[in-house]
């Protein structure tokens, strides 16, 4: 309770500071001294000095010069001084926002008078910029004339009987950020494309779409990508993989090569929430975590929150990936097929009827088709057997969308993904296939099958022009099966079958209310029924007379209820504030928590400096744990464990800050910093323990939890992103300086230790150059080596009855050293061409171009007279090829 | 003169280069630490306490032995009675009770040990468990060896596993002992049992080792009982032979049954992976182990596949 009060007090103070900053900008003195100054420069000076924002067409101001000398504090006089002798009229739009238009009274002549008596007509379309889909129901309003219209189902609109050719207009749509701009009558229909963070009046673009949270981009560190950007994002290994793409974001990296998820700003891999159309995915990986289940082609857009979330999201401490599937709403059917080293893929999008459409996408790996999954073998004695080398992953994603009328949208989404590993092999494997491709008396069999399945039904209702209601019902499940049979001697064997299942049935309802230009509210609730089942049935024959068995089941369920409210207040065009609160209840253990959030934005200058700040707390009721002893279970499965009376949920508090600047048209720079403190995160009780035998404590939750201890975690860092767009060159540089540390006080930790994958320095860079139909990208990664525990001394110690003592290495501190820095350079060469009426892309991706064998692990083994150091090396140079066709 | 944007790009690159090239590695220190070893065995005299210093990582013990600690002060408190220790004159690094009294350690006694060396203080405490006796044991040698896969190492950095086929005898050993302890009713849930079979045979196979059961540490209350309420544990060890017709080689076997506290269980369960870790210590201020145990051992010879007790 005390900590809640602390949060509330902190947010209150932050609120007041932010409010004061907003107010402080109103009390400035004005000093202008222009002498034949180009008007664009004068406008910049006004922006810098007064914090004003101007909307105008570039052609209107580019050739104008102004002369003005003013000192005082009356804004209207200052503006009059600047614009009075120009053919430009300035009109106030908001408190500190003005629109510039041509002034018909400036050089009024006969022709102009005639023109004023003439009427004009403005025609246009409102479209989604990335998908080019029409947006029906958009409002186009001329505030001066008090005249307006809405776009029809095709996104088309017109305004006629206008007395002027140029009009100040506001284009708005439910869920969209309103746009104030100039519309000019033309013989050609205007095409108004809506896209995120658009501020350029000349292009008339607007951010957001129907599914955007109001001012979601207020959240510091939020990454938003839409269809086009996802298409253009760098591909790694020829795979269109969403989580691989996100790893190009500062503060995000994958821990290890296999069997670890992504880590965001020093968090744990189970602290990331992955959502597809609002429903969670519990294990978003294929191929032993090499690539993700997020087939990038299938997604319309994603939002990725790093640590600071809006109040609508909760349940994890580290990040939220909110990904929305494409719905096929395009004007014509489209298809894309592709093949990379790992998999083949396709996506088809098409309208079905005038108001319905669908999308279906799929992937499948094909290595099993190349080398075969079953191998009949026979030895000289005529003994026959079938060895198996089967592995494949596949997924299929589909969405059906229906828009029965302008006020309702219905959609049904489906996702199913699986990995299947089916092996039967002898132990004596080698590259010489002939030596082992024969019947084997001693062998091992592995039958692993794991994957997710997701059904989502969503209804979006627009009861009025200011209200959007979204209801989502989903069922998400994760199932894993690990079956093994190992026969190392003719009388010893292990036979085990282990299953894990997580099943969620959830319903969430969200309502967005657009009160006015300055006030937008959002609220909702989320109800989830969680079920967690595990079972094992294993028999171990150590010899003919020594047999052990393990038969256990575990079944838990829990109800999670969350409700939230947040309000976006825009007191001025340069200052926005979004307080919110989320309250959640978890039935297992009866935990109830309040999670306040606050996001603030200050636009110091639209081009030079935008500041975002976020503060908030998060609660996580589920943790993914892995048994640390036995080979019999938890090899590929993700086992989630809910909180209970004995296990408190993990909680964190984070402050993040972002400053973004685009001082030149070719340069974008952003600097982000964060600090997060977490408690009740589960840390291994014995950090040196690892799977090393058949026996384990069993699969009961208490046995699993006994291997972990509640701990404290801290992470802080700074992230710098620089993008230089020097066409045809494009240079991107990202740097992360960060620390993440853990402490387990209940097992005697008095100090924080670097976490397992702490990376203090991470630099990524890429240089892209395009030549006609060719495209070259050279990218590099430089990061600190992962922490390792380095022994500092040696000693011998004996036990009762020992003849000779054993030599050990003394490791007084966990993670007291580091591996050498990891450095890798990749090269991508792409070629685009047309053939057979289709657009083709071929790509060669060379992984680890310099063939540097990075050290990825190191072991210290004592010998009687020295210490033997063994190092594991990373992957060598790998050429990877991809081909893709768009129809 | 370079254009502004190129100069800016160079400046950014240089700045980041300076930032990233800072050293973030941590070099381990190479201090010397105190190592302590001692086991207080129920119904036995006070033990010798061994003190020594850690060595450098690359110190060759065959040419440069460990340095014993001889100038420490050591005292043990047993059920409230303080027993001073003194360095052994004949064996440097060993400390023995200063008193010549042949005091036996009572089962269930509480003890603590305090050490001071070069201003460095160390302390440990614990409980001496009830005595344990190996009531009975049985060794079962099969008539013939079985085929087995033999793998010397499991290396992830090579595609070849290096496995080969061989023959082994899987020898089963049953141990029986009695619990609880009517004469000294400390609940058996307090204690752990370590069972160890140590044949004088050199055999290791990375795959087979996880199937064999030559030693185990587990809570005593978790161990199954036979119909006569005696605790029963069955272990398995392997004896390799050259071919399928070879008889089991003669060898000796040491059987060890040990009762200890949680401190000992943590030590025992963590001492078999020196490449990964050192044993878990129960001493504040030093490395090593000082704990109470009770121990029963038997040595047998397996001759022509049958047990023969060695002549006493």
In short:
The complex is a heterodimer of chains A (887) and B (312). Chain A is mainly β and 887 residues long.
Explain what this protein looks like in three dimensions.
The complex is a heterodimer of chains A (887) and B (312). The longest helix of chain A has 23 residues, at 2-24. Chain A has a 22-stranded antiparallel beta barrel. Chain A has a five-stranded mixed sheet with strand order 13-20-21-16-17. Chain A has a four-stranded antiparallel sheet with strand order 8-7-10-11, with no helix packed on it. Chain A contains ten helices and 53 strands. Chain B has 312 residues and is mostly beta strands. Chain B folds into two domains: 34-127, Immunoglobulin-like, CATH 2.60.40; 134-278 and 293-308. Chain B has helices spanning 4-20, 206-209, 262-269, and strands spanning 34-41, 49-53, 73-78, 81-87, 94-97, 110-117, 120-127, 134-140, 146-151, 163-177, 192-199, 215-219, 231-241, 251-260, 287-303, 306-308. In chain B, the strands form two sheets. In chain B, strands 1, 2, 3, 4, 5, 6, 7, 11, 12, 14, 15 and 16 form a twelve-stranded mixed sheet that branches. In chain B, strands 8, 9, 10 and 13 form a four-stranded antiparallel sheet that branches. In chain B, strand 15 and strand 16 form a beta hairpin. The N and C termini of chain B lie far apart (97 Å). The model of chain B is unreliable at 21-30 (pLDDT under 50). The chains are: A mainly beta (887), B mainly beta (312).
